[in-house]
Structures are given as structure tokens and as C-alpha cells.
Design brief:
The complex is a heterodimer.
Chain A: H1 3-30, H2 36-65, H3 73-96, H4 108-141, H5 145-156
Helix pairs in contact in A: 2-3, 2-4
Chain B: H1 5-13, H2 19-23, H3 27-35, H4 44-48, H5 53-87, H6 91-109, H7 111-114, H8 121-146, H9 157-179, E1 185-186, E2 189-190, H10 192-219, H11 224-246, H12 254-292, H13 304-319
Antiparallel strand pairs in B: 1-2
Helix pairs in contact in B: 5-6, 8-9, 10-11, 10-12
Classes of the chains: A mainly alpha, B mainly alpha.
């Protein structure tokens, strides 16, 4: 395995993911009747929610993991501020600027809670999907008993 | 001045309540909702007739607090418990993390009964619906992995067959939810979190199979059978996705599924962008912090005497039979 192959694999992977998403999105989009406004609301909600949750998870990791360095204050505060910025944007700044982010919920807080649950559902599906795919892949990559016996036989000869 | 009954109702419900909850409140609350436009001008006793307005405030606030203590707090503790279980080094802390996580998970599972009026309980309902098929599927995958080399582990060849059966039954159960019957339905509608889960699962599985297949084809040696099998699995999973867009399910039409799938694609892309942004900010903050830490004092290179001492120690270790042994 050399660096060129790794780079090639990475580029192929990125291309594959983009092509796949484009194909599925075109197919599903050709069959539906959703307004672009709803799309954009969901998209921005998703970005803000995952940014906020991601920041708080990194913060939690920092607090748990940085014990050996006596939990440095500056980065902990930095991540807390980073997550709080997203929360403030969702709950206060954007509603006050008349940017419409609500989807069937009456308040920004209710929307935020719905977003968190939607994020959790997506995360659960991603984890399950990864375990299934990686599990099957790993079981195929391991040499079977027959392969091991064949290899031992060849080595003896 | 509050202008609509929804505004008033939501203003009362504040944070731990979703708009749809209010449609499921008791008849007394509904009476209250119909008249709340006039809240500013009519006295509470007149509005509610024989029931007290303060009682309604009490009902909503109590449900709000219940939602916090029975759903959101366990949810937060669950995440902290899992992270604690994964990252803490001491066994005692790991055990505490695991125990609290399990307790909180049970509370989330019970939310359709403990919080029947809350929309959040739809997520608890989803967890309850998924627990059966996921336990079967994941146990199946576990058995398949660890029984690949019978004799080298405690698993036998039969365990592998059982693993395959469990995996297929679990996956069929999930697929049957969509196409055959028993689609997770909560409050007389298909659970929105189930639709999101299902569409994400069948959106991500094909691309993961294809990715692993391509990675092995570029980086692996003598693994053509793995490449072809992964591509085949990916193709089958992709067919399920296309099938859901073309054929009606037991509770969702193909058009409805396409709608949800388009939204799911945007949503997953949004999550990926948001998480990347959070990771970038995290790495920037850590880099900035580390760059400001004063450098450790530089030591002088070892002199001849120190090098000689080090040589002796290394020699002692390489030859064995030192004092320590």
C-alpha cells in the first residue's frame, strides 16, 4: 500500500459519495412535491443542530479526556462558547431577524427539541448501518479456517 | 399582545412541549385553547366555566416538568453515561456509567406510557419498536464475525449459522415494518422518527457497502471475492431504496417516501457539514491553546558518561539476568 493508492482511494470515495447522493436525490426529487423553502429550513436546522450537538459532545470529551492535563480552562470555555453561539442563533438571533426556521412547531425551543430528536434518529440509523456493513466486511476479510489450513499446508511444502 | 391561540398556548407550554402535544391534551385543555385568544380580556373563571384556569397552567407546567425529568434529563444522562463508560479508565466509573445509561434507556423506552401527551415520547416509541429487530440483527453480526474461525474462539460453526439466521430474521423484521405490516405507528400516524430512521438506514447502507468494496479493490490484495460481495450487498440495499421509492409500503406511499427521502438526504448532508464545522472549531481551539503553552526547557545533549551509563543499562536488558529478575 503506497501513498498514491491511498490518495486514489480517497478521491474515488469522495467521488462515489457525491455521485451516489446526486443520483438518489435526483430520483427522489423527481417523484416528490416539496417546496424549496421547506428544504432550506430543514437544511439550516440540520447544520445548526449538528454543530451545536457536536460542539457540546466535543466539550464533554474534552472534560472527560483532559483529566491528565487538569481540564484546561481556555479550550473548555472555547467549546462551550462555540456550542452556545449555535444555540443562541437558533433560539434568539435568527427568530429576531425574521429568518424562518420553524417547521410545524410554534417556538424556537420546540423546534430545537424536535431537531435534537431527529438528529438522534439519524445518528442511530447511521450507527446501525455502520455496524452491519463493517461487521459483514470484517467477517469476509478474516481468513476462514480452510484458508488458514491451505496456507499452513503450502508453508510445510 | 398575543395574537393567536397557538401563540398563547405555546407561550404557556414554553420549552418542553411541541405544538402537536396541545392537540392531544384533555378536553378541558382544549376548551381552554379555544378561548385563549381572549385571555387578555376575559376573566379566568368565565373562560373555563367550572374548571380553574390556574389548574390548566398547573397541568401544562406539570407535564412540562414531567417531560424534562422523564425524558430529556435521562436522555442527557444516557449520553454522559455512555461517554463515561467509553472514556473513563477506572472500572468503578465505567460500571456506574453503564448502570446509569441502562436505567435512563429504560426511562426513555417507557416514555410512551409515562408521557403520553408529549411528542418526545415518539422517540421512545421508536426505540421500543427497534429493540427487537436490532437485537437480532446485531447479535447475528456479532456471531458471524466471531465464529469465522471455529476452533480459534469459543464459537462453533453452528454459531455462525445461527448468526446468519438471526441477522436475516432481524433485517427482515425491519423491512417488514415498511412493506408488510406493523409499521411503527404512534398517535394514529406513522412515527416520523421511524421514517427518518428507515430512510437513513437504506440511504447510508448502499454507499457504505460500495465504499468498502472500492477501498478493498484499490488497497487490498487477493480479495476480489470481498470486493464483489460488498458490491453485491450494496446493489441489493440500493434496490431496496429504489423499491421504496417506486412501490407503496404498508403505511407509506412511494411519493410520501420520496418526499421523506429527499428531506433525509438534505438533513444528513446538513448534519455532516455541521459536525465538520464543530470538529474544525474544536481542532482550531486546541491548536491555538497548545501553541500558547510555553515550551518545555530544552535539555543539553547527553555527555559521554551518561551515554556510557545508558549503554550499560541497555546491554543488561538485552542480555537478561539482571537484578530485577
Amino acid at each position: 500500500m503506497n501513498n498514491l493508492n491511498v490518495k486514489k482511494a480517497f478521491v474515488f470515495l469522495i467521488l462515489l459519495i457525491f455521485t451516489y447522493v446526486a443520483i438518489v436525490f435526483s430520483l427522489s426529487n423527481s417523484m416528490n412535491d416539496i417546496s424549496s423553502d421547506l428544504y432550506m429550513r430543514r437544511f439550516w436546522n440540520a447544520i445548526l443542530t449538528s454543530y451545536m450537538i457536536g460542539s457540546f459532545l466535543f466539550l464533554l470529551t474534552l472534560v472527560m479526556y483532559a483529566e491528565s492535563r487538569n481540564v484546561p480552562f481556555a479550550p473548555t470555555f472555547g467549546m462551550l462558547a462555540s456550542g452556545a453561539v449555535a444555540a443562541l442563533l437558533m433560539l434568539w438571533v435568527l427568530p429576531n431577524l425574521d429568518v424562518e426556521l420553524l417547521e410545524g412547531n410554534g417556538t424556537p425551543m420546540a423546534q430545537l427539541l424536535t431537531n435534537v430528536l431527529r438528529f438522534s434518529s439519524t445518528l442511530l440509523a447511521a450507527i446501525v448501518s455502520s455496524i452491519i456493513v463493517f461487521g459483514l466486511f470484517y467477517s469476509m476479510m478474516l481468513p476462514s479456517k480452510l484458508e488458514i489450513q491451505w496456507k499452513n499446508l503450502n508453508e510445510e511444502e | 399582545m398575543l395574537t393567536s391561540r397557538w401563540t398563547v398556548a405555546l407561550d404557556l407550554s414554553r420549552s418542553f412541549y411541541h405544538i402537536e402535544h396541545l392537540r392531544r391534551l384533555t378536553h378541558r385543555s382544549l376548551v381552554f385553547m379555544r378561548v385563549d385568544v381572549h385571555l387578555a380580556s376575559i376573566r379566568p373563571e368565565v373562560i373555563c366555566g367550572n374548571c380553574n384556569l390556574h389548574q390548566h397552567f398547573g397541568i401544562i407546567m406539570a407535564t412540562e416538568a414531567m417531560a424534562f425529568f422523564l425524558f430529556w434529563l435521562p436522555g442527557i444522562v444516557l449520553v454522559v453515561g455512555i461517554i463515561s463508560f467509553l472514556l473513563k479508565k477506572e472500572l468503578q466509573q465505567k460500571k456506574i456509567g453503564l448502570a446509569t445509561s441502562m436505567l435512563c434507556f429504560l426511562l426513555l423506552l417507557a416514555s410512551p406510557w409515562t408521557l403520553p401527551d408529549s411528542d418526545s415520547s415518539s422517540f421512545g416509541h421508536l426505540l421500543g419498536s427497534l429493540i427487537g429487530p436490532l437485537v437480532l440483527t446485531l447479535t447475528g453480526v456479532y456471531n458471524i464475525i466471531f465464529s469465522i474461525q471455529p476452533g480459534t474462539t469459543q464459537y462453533s460453526k453452528n454459531d455462525r449459522i445461527i448468526g446468519f439466521i438471526l441477522f436475516i430474521v432481524g433485517l427482515s423484521w425491519l423491512i417488514a415494518y415498511h412493506w408488510i405490516a406493523y409499521t411503527p405507528t404512534y398517535d394514529n400516524a406513522v412515527n416520523q422518527y421511524w421514517i427518518l430512521f428507515f430512510s437513513t438506514l437504506f440511504l447510508l447502507s448502499p454507499v457504505l457497502f460500495f465504499s468498502f468494496g472500492i477501498l478493498v479493490s484499490i488497497l487490498g490484495h487477493n480479495r476480489k471475492h470481498v470486493v464483489w460481495t460488498m458490491l453485491l450487498f450494496g446493489f441489493v440495499a440500493f434496490q431496496f431504496l429504489i423499491g421504496s421509492m417506486v412501490l407503496d409500503g404498508s403505511s407509506l406511499t412511494s411519493v410520501e417516501f420520496s418526499n421523506y427521502l429527499s428531506i433525509t438526504i438534505l438533513e444528513v448532508s446538513g448534519y455532516a457539514i455541521g459536525l465538520l464545522l464543530a470538529a474544525s472549531v474544536f481542532s482550531a481551539i486546541i491548536t491555538l491553546y497548545e501553541s500558547r503553552i510555553p515550551m518545555m526547557p530544552q535539555l543539553d545533549p547527553p555527555n559521554a558518561e551518561e551515554l556510557k551509563y545508558a549503554r550499560e543499562i541497555i546491554k543488561l536488558h538485552l542480555e537478561g539476568g539482571g537484578e530485577d529478575e
